[in-house]
Fold this sequence. Notes:
This protein is mostly helical. The protein has 20 helices and no strands.
Amino acid sequence: xxxxxxxxxxxxxxxxxxxxxxxxxxxxxxxxxxxxxxxxxxxxxxxxxxxxxxxxxxxxxxxxxxxxxxxxxxxxxxxxxxxxxxxxxxxxxxxxxxxxxxxxxxxxxxxxxxxxxxxxxxxxxxxxxxxxxxxxxxxxxxxxxxxxxxxxxxxxxxxxxxxxxxxxxxxxxxxxxxxxxxxxxxxxxxxxxxxxxxxxxxxxxxxxxxxxxxxxxxxxxxxxxxxxxxxxxxxxxxxxxxxxxxxxxxxxxxxxxxxxxxxxxxxxxxxxxxxxxxxxxxxxxxxxxxxxxxxxxxxxxxxxxxxxxxxxxxxxxxxxxxxxxxxxxxxxxxxxxxxxxxxxxxxxxxxxxxxxxxxxxxxxxxxxxxxxxxxxxxxxxxxxxxxxxxxxxxxxxxxxxxxxxxxxxxxxxxxxxxxxxxxxxxxxxxxxxxxxxxxxxxxxxxxxxxxxxxxxxxxxxxxxxxxxxxxxxxxxx
Length: 477
């Protein structure tokens, strides 16, 4: 197990570096072209395939050790729906290649988290981000590439903003923001001065990037993280009222501000030009609401891309994504796919975490804050299900860690998982009928302690390892 864990450390570091700085650090040209950079994309494919090969070798070579963690069923369902969209995709070959890379990245993250555990994974991520922060300052101080110069037509917008070793200031801002969250929450035995030594320079660097998206997303993430610290899963009676109040306030604000929002969307210069992109995508979404163009089959697929039929201005020439992750999913896998992704990837994992009894407040805070940051960030940037996108890497990492912790903790989510399986699987229907015929009691067996967890897990088909095998760090203890 030690050797397999060492291999997972190497694999995780390589994937994290690729996700953070890509294969062309300090290269503004390729950073702006994104998927239109064939050289960078080809290198990325070789790296991902190589990491998968290393992990598969470790799994075969050390087959007698603890079984590897499996991909959560919620993520599997989302990937399956994306695969189904290949049936009607505009370019199924490109879409399938992109989906395969996305699935491989997710599998690598799941394997590494399963082998390393929660604490090791978070500490490894902290160490990597601290090193990247040092590299950012080194790039700004010692090289001309650490600060944005002229970049296509964006010279006035980004000139003078810091980007460090990253290709763009927005990417740098997102990495720095997640660094702040990791060093603020769930620090355990980390001294305050060590945390401050990383957080304060990170805050200043974030300010110098001028990335308003990351600043806004970080503010929302910090608020959620602080509120989560006082949350108790055993006293969750106020959760639904608070959520209902929050949704009501959001809907009321949306209604009251709708005229202003409409005016801003009608202005092509609003949101630094994003509203022009969103207008075009909403037109396409209305025409293909239920199917979309197919996963990965809207942007950067050549002349067959729908964007060329919608416009011939700067959007079709320079823009590689919608600058909104939710809109990108809407125009690729349609409204059903967007709903499935939001429900199973963005809602169910944090709900499991909130309903788990044996998770510390600090651990909840760091994972929920990272997830909220990624969700808010996707309102102005695109990274949802986007292969090795850095924010997608952080999002999937937080989701997998949530599944890892919640699956080894008692809580109401075990009941919910059992009833969900009863509702959607044939095996569950048979078990439901058998339970009703023998006892007439449809309530789950109530026991205390680990006995109840074992009964619920067996009923739901979840394989929980014995207490001696479970790592304490996975439960936040």
